[in-house]
Amino acid sequence: MIKISNLTHIYKQADCGIVALNDISLNIHDGEFVVFAGRNGSGKSTLAKHLNGLLTPTKGIIEVDGLKTHLEENLWKVRQRVGMIFQNPDNQIVATVVEEDVAFGLENLGIPRNEIRERVDNALKSVHMLKYARFEPHLLSGGQKQRVAIAGVLAMKPKYLVLDEPTSMLDPKGKKEVIEIVRKLNSEQEVTVILITHSVDEVIYADRVVAMDCGAIVSDASPRSFFGDTKLLKEIGIEPPPAVLLSRELKNEGYNLKEALSIKELAGNLCSLN
Ligand SMILES: Nc1ncnc2c1ncn2[C@@H]1O[C@H](COP(=O)(O)OP(=O)(O)OP(=O)(O)O)[C@@H](O)[C@H]1O
Ligand SMILES: [Mg+2]
């Protein structure tokens, strides 16, 4: 479990600081798929960077399986447990051959060669990129590069995967590929996923949506109740997914319809109308 207790983060500026996170408390349980949503500047990335000790709290405590992230001696263990993926895959790929990139972190850990081979192959398999193992990363599409970056993190066998807008630079096909992989890692390999996204069509897959505004948590709910809270969504500047909007319009037209989160669900609801 990741336990966040009374976390405040103030970025030091010349005279006065910027309060990016203000007294946040939250638990992320093993196996969960948690999405963080909220407008630009609400504090999502700042929070993400606290989860593997890239930032340490100004006040409060973060514990990853009981390991306090502000203690220097825990950092190594914390970073092995919590893998991070950022927006731009180009900034995360360091080697000139895909498989060498995936092996990079493992070599630094001093893992034996035969185990490295096995872990690299398994990680590339998990992201459907094994056949690109000998490719040069610059020949890959953005979505493929992001999957290689994910493989690099997976090879370290993290328990938690934090992804900060991993699809925001990708086209619709690339987005879909990456999100499908992330969902599979959560459902089949029991990786706990913490996904930051502005795409409402990705929010619907979460167990929980944690909405942030002005450095605070303003909602912690299932996607269905989150998107059902029209007042909150307006306040934090989030538009519901198209299926929710369409369900509402049809309801206003007199159709006796339940609110659907996805087009697939909406189609099912429409088919069961009599
Ligand atoms: N390195 C930094 N130094 C100073 N202030 C920062 C720094 N990084 C972020 N901030 C400020 O902290 C606040 C929260 O920023 P953060 O990047 O966490 O937001 P976010 O929710 O990730 O936004 P976005 O959706 O745009 O990625 C903002 O006011 C931002 O300007
Ligand atoms: Mg951000």
Strand-helix topology:
Layout (H helix, E strand, L loop, with lengths): L1 E10 L6 E11 L4 E5 L6 H8 L7 E6 L2 E2 L6 H7 E4 L12 H12 L3 H14 L15 H13 L5 E5 L7 H17 L3 E5 L3 H4 L4 E6 L2 E6 L1 H6 L1 H7 L5 H11 L10 H9 L3
Parallel strand pairs: 3-8, 3-9, 6-7, 7-8
Antiparallel strand pairs: 1-2, 1-4, 4-5, 9-10
Helix pairs in contact: 3-4, 3-5, 4-5, 5-6
The structure holds adenosine-5'-triphosphate (ATP) and magnesium ion (MG).
Number of strands: 10
Identify the overall geometry: globular
**What is the CATH class of the domain at 31-57 and 75-223?**
Alpha Beta
Approximately how much beta-strand content do the residues carry?
15-25%
Ligand species: adenosine-5'-triphosphate, magnesium ion
What does this structure look like?
With 274 residues, the protein is an alpha/beta fold. The chain has a domain at 31-57 and 75-223: Rossmann fold. Helix content is 39%, strand content 22%. It contains 11 helices and 10 strands. The protein has a 6-stranded mixed β-sheet with strand order 6-7-8-3-9-10, with helices on both faces. A 4-stranded antiparallel β-sheet has the order 2-1-4-5, with helices on one face. Helix 3 crosses helix 4 and helix 4 (113-126) packs across helix 5 (142-154). The radius of gyration is 20 Å and the shape is globular. Bound molecules: adenosine-5'-triphosphate and magnesium ion. Residues 44-45, 164 line the site of magnesium ion. Residues 11, 18, 20, 38, 40-46 line the site of adenosine-5'-triphosphate.
